[in-house]
Specification:
The complex is a heterotrimer of chains A (253), B (343) and C (397). Chain A is 36% helix and 25% strand. By secondary structure, chain A is α/β, with parallel strands linked by helices. In chain A, strands 6-7-8-3-9-10 form a 6-stranded mixed β-sheet, sandwiched between helices. Chain A has a 4-stranded antiparallel β-sheet with strand order 2-1-4-5, covered by helices on one side. The longest helix of chain A is centred in the C-terminal third of the chain and has 17 residues. The chains are: A alpha/beta (253), B mainly alpha (343), C mainly alpha (397).
Chain lengths: 253, 343, 397
């Protein structure tokens, strides 16, 4: 059963066709990688999925509900979380508060004038937050300013913030960009563990083939705004169209 | 027709002042990335350069003129300024009469010095701090500057007349071929408008046609890249700050015959000039100038009796109303660039 | 206790005690001594302390938590004042309806202004709020004269309807009261050279401030308060965490507008008059100064800042050259002359200069305001405990 159905999606910027009739179907509880050279339209596609951009044509359905025209926070409330290329966290707040915020969002919705209760009296949230911090081995850093964390810790914190909302679909934008090989492998292990222990679908946009082939159960290769191949990773490796896309006439960095 | 022309003319002097202050604000914001709330104070300091210069010229000594008697029959004490006694009564009194325009020569070095000290001493340390901090520290500086002026010059406006030659009005209507006595316009306002146009033209051609200006414009567009080219952009920005200070200072100086300077004139103009900058589009030089004149003229139209009869009080709020409408419909102002101050 | 953490309750009780005993604490010098002019324990000034304290506490909920710098908050203060004075004119000289109405009307006005201004961020937001406030000022000054009394403003008149009040005896002026207890009533306590004044109006305003402070602490420590700081920290992450920053910011704006309205209503309750200058942009600037001076985003900072500025405005401004000479009387004349020459620009009418310099120093060296200064001094003396538990609400640089 597919959780995300992208059908005939197109998006233009002026004369440039960033997305051209994209059709992708992501199956529930799998790891789906979307790869392609720079300028293939991966980021545009991601921005369409999270509600930052509205496509000119086509439909996007998450679990049978259309996502078109919904705001980012509404899409998140439906169960779609997003991890950014450079971790987006609440830098001048503590690690603990960083975890509290998504938990409150999950429980109370997009807005609640919740202004008299003391945070510490929200026992259910507080317990969950502490448990989540223990799970990602960050409990001892609970009182630290998030901006002062190391890069790897920021990534783990952001991941923990997303997972604490128990999303059904987690979108990851180049989660290993700029990482050393050892960190990349740690991230792969982390993602694999997430996938195996939870009821969750991962959609990964990635450059790094090593990451793609160690994780993905399904791969979509994009080039010039359109999906070229949609197949299992083992069938992708030697595919002529893929080689053409990466090595052929339109190599763009 | 002449009523419309008259309102346009009436709006020109205020519009010129707005445009000049807004131009300087935009230069500073565009180059240094600093929101300068002390810019109105620079306008005010410029005005007081004229006052100071006039006072210096008027330093005089007393002599007793034995040929004349006062009404009590005592010999009359006559005040003679040094300038008259040195240069002779004709040239001396001529210079006294022309004190305001001549004080430009005095004001330029003063404003350059103040601008330089401000930038090196204070603003420099705020490049990397958030805009709110920049607003706050320059707001504090504006208070300090205006209080210093108040301490030395008192709280009352100080009349500073224009040269005799430009003191009166002339029949603008007759000059452009309309009926006589329909448009009477004071000479000095025309002088002020022409002067501002001159300054604006000078600033634009400086930026457009000199290498220095080219680098500054490049720096306004993309500071980091220019820095990477090995060009010392910071020193040029210091100079730009001094230029902006001079522009504001001269704008204030030449404004003194239109409106007697007082210590809070800077703040009065600053609030409106900020509105002008935002309407013109933060970071756009031509937008600042355009919006300055536009709002000055709009304000003058809104003060027409006929308009007030229909919309009472509109003259008081027109600028703010326009600002709100523009900000909501054209979020980046008339000519603003994308991504400026939108953090 | 009271649903607050230990450190919060400590600081809250400290403020309560200081407020209750303010008539003593602010009058440390005997009446006859030369230092008596530094006494601030007279009703008019003490009322200002607490009323501007409320104004700054409210402003801090917006600026300190969300980082949105409003340059037009005096408009809400003014609107609150006008609402209160009309309640006095139409209904009763009892201050309660006036105060309630001032909060409500200011809140409604803040919804309208905030809804539009919050469409933009950064300096654009500041300019929009400034534009709205200046418009309100100009309108109150001119067109709205039938409602605002124009330049002269409004006072209760003997001929006002006051539908709920009994008719005044002849020759009696309408006075603001709380169920018959007049705001202007004072009790004086003379104790061997000291004179302490206890004023009804002050205590009414002080109780309101304590309640307002209590609510503010609750807001700071609530999930809502956490969300407001998230607005300041990273709106992008907020949206992708399923939260809508707009209503949060608007709610903060309206709450702080209501605080400003409350302060305006109390002002009218104390001095039963209002004029449009209360809404001028310098008044908006003043509350910014107070909050930053005291410590943005801290709990007691705004009250401290409000107190300091009002103290300077009322006490420092009264010192003149003669008083200075009196102090330096024991010094040789020439030294006294030099000292007076140096100090004179900073006192009396020049107190704004002192304020400007202090403010600049705070922004440059102490971004956390007086509260941060206090903490640094505290740490210097080796007090290891995190002072007043406000570490988590430090403003971000």
């Amino acid at each position: 059963m597919s959780i995300l159905e992208i059908k005939n999606v197109s998006k233009r910027f002026g004369g440039l066709k960033a997305l051209d009739d994209v059709n992708i179907s992501v199956k529930e509880n799998t790891v789906h990688a979307i790869i392609g050279p720079n300028g293939a339209g991966k980021s545009t596609l991601l921005n369409v999925l999270v509600g930052k951009l509205i496509p000119d044509e086509g439909s996007v359905e998450f679990d049978g509900n259309s996502l078109i025209g919904r705001k980012p926070h509404e899409i998140n409330q439906m169960g779609v979380s997003r991890v950014f290329q450079t971790p987006e966290i609440f830098g001048d707040m503590t690690v603990y508060e960083n975890i509290l915020i998504p938990l409150f969002a999950k429980r109370d919705g997009a807005f609640r004038l919740h202004c008299i209760e003391h945070v510490e009296d929200e026992k259910d949230i507080v317990e969950k937050a502490k448990k989540m911090l223990q799970d990602v081995n960050m409990y001892e850093k609970l009182g630290m300013r998030a901006a002062s964390l190391s890069r790897g810790d920021k990534r783990r914190l952001e991941m923990a913030m997303c997972l604490s909302q128990e999303p059904r679909l987690l979108l990851l934008d180049e989660p290993t960009a700029g990482m050393a090989r050892a960190d990349t492998n740690n991230t792969i292990d982390l993602l694999r563990e997430i996938r195996e222990t939870r009821d969750i679908t991962l959609a990964i946009i990635e450059h790094d083939m090593h990451v793609v082939f160690s994780l993905a159960e399904h791969v979509t290769v994009m080039a010039r705004g359109t999906p070229l191949v949609d197949d299992k990773p083992e069938n992708i490796k030697g595919h002529p169209k893929v080689q053409e896309a990466y090595l052929g006439g339109h190599k763009e960095g | 027709m002449d009523a419309i022309l008259l309102q346009i003319l009436n709006g020109l002097d205020k519009g010129s002042a707005y445009a000049l202050i807004a131009l300087g604000l935009t230069l500073i914001f565009g180059t240094l990335g600093v929101v300068n709330f002390a810019h109105g104070a620079l306008f005010m300091v410029g005005a007081f350069c004229a006052v100071t210069f006039q006072r210096i010229l008027n330093i005089s000594f007393q002599t007793i003129d034995p040929t004349k008697k006062d009404f009590l029959g005592n010999p009359l004490k006559v005040d003679t300024t040094y300038i008259e006694s040195w240069l002779g009564p004709n040239l001396g009194s001529g210079i006294l009469d022309w004190a305001v325009p001549i004080s430009i020569l005095f004001a330029i070095p003063v404003m350059i010095l103040i601008g330089y000290v401000m930038e090196r001493g204070l603003i420099k340390h705020f490049y990397r701090r958030p805009h709110a901090d920049q607003i706050l520290v320059t707001f504090g500086l504006a208070i300090v500057l205006q209080e210093i002026i108040k301490f030395f010059y008192g709280a009352n406006p100080i009349p500073t007349p224009a040269p005799e030659m430009f003191a009166g009005s002339f029949d603008f209507g007759a000059a452009v071929g309309l009926a006589e006595d329909t448009i009477i316009y004071p000479y000095w306002r025309l002088v002020y408008f022409l002067f501002s146009m001159g300054i604006i033209a000078a600033v634009f051609s400086f930026l457009q046609f000199t290498t220095f200006g080219m680098v500054v414009r490049a720096g306004m567009a993309d500071r980091e890249t220019v820095g990477l080219l090995g060009i010392n952009i910071d020193r040029r920005f210091t100079i730009m700050f001094a230029i902006a200070a001079v522009v504001a200072g001269l704008a204030g100086l030449m404004y003194t015959p239109i409106n007697a300077p007082n210590y809070h004139m800077g703040m009065d103009f600053l609030v409106l000039s900020f509105v002008v900058v935002v309407v013109g589009g933060m970071g756009s030089l031509s937008g600042a100038v355009l919006a300055g004149f536009l709002l000055g003229i709009l304000e003058s139209f809104a003060s027409m009796k006929e308009v007030i009869a229909i919309l009472p009080g509109i003259n008081q709020i027109i600028i703010y109303l326009v600002a709100i409408i523009i900000l909501l419909t054209r979020p980046r102002g008339l000519m603003g660039r994308k991504g400026v101050m939108e953090d | 206790m009271l649903g607050l953490s230990k450190s919060d309750i400590r600081i809250f009780l400290l403020v309560v005690v200081l407020t209750i005993f303010a008539p003593f604490i602010l009058n440390p010098f005997p009446e006859a001594s030369g230092l008596a002019q530094f006494n601030a324990g007279y009703p008019d000034l003490m009322q200002r302390f607490v009323i501007f304290g409320i104004f700054a506490i409210g402003f801090n909920i917006l600026f300190g938590l969300t980082g949105y710098l409003s340059f037009g908050h005096a408009a809400f203060l003014g609107v609150g004042s006008y609402a209160a004075i009309w309640m006095m004119k139409l209904l009763t000289m009892n201050v309660i309806p006036g105060i309630i109405m001032s909060v409500l009307i200011a809140g409604i006005f803040a919804v309208a202004v905030g809804y539009i201004s919050l469409k933009r961020t950064g300096i654009y937001f500041s300019i929009l709020t400034l534009a709205f406030a200046q418009m309100s000022f100009a309108l109150a000054y001119s067109v709205l004269t039938p409602i605002t009394g124009g330049e002269t403003g409004l006072q209760p008149k003997i001929s006002d309807p006051r539908m709920l009040d009994a008719a005044l005896a002849s020759g009696e002026a309408p006075r603001a009261n709380l169920f018959g207890l007049e705001m202007g009533t004072s009790y004086e306590l003379a104790l061997s050279g000291w004179v302490f004044t206890f004023n009804v109006g002050y205590y009414v305003a002080a109780i309101v401030m304590i309640i307002a402070l209590y609510i503010a602490i609750r807001i700071f420590r609530s999930p809502f308060g956490v969300m407001l700081r998230a607005v300041k920290s990273n709106q992008q992450r907020m949206r992708y965490t399923g939260l809508n920053p707009k209503p949060y910011t608007l709610a903060a704006f309206v709450i702080s507008g209501m605080y400003a309205g409350l302060a305006g209503g109390l002002m009218v309750a104390m001095d039963t008059q209002v004029g449009p200058e209360r809404m001028f942009w310098t008044a908006s600037g003043e509350v910014v100064l107070m909050t930053i001076l005291g410590g943005t985003g801290t709990i007691v900072g705004p009250i401290l800042g409000a107190g300091l500025i009002k103290y300077m405005e009322n006490i420092l401004s009264k010192i003149n050259a003669d008083i200075l000479y009196e102090w330096f009387a024991m010094l040789p004349d020439s030294i006294a002359d030099i000292l007076v020459f140096v100090i004179y620009p900073f006192i009396g009418k020049g107190w704004h200069l002192t304020l400007g310099i202090i403010f600049m120093c705070v922004v440059i060296f102490l971004p956390g305001g007086l509260v941060e200064g206090g903490q640094r001094i505290g740490n210097m003396f080796g007090r290891k405990k995190k002072t007043e538990g406000e570490k988590s609400s430090q403003p971000a640089e």
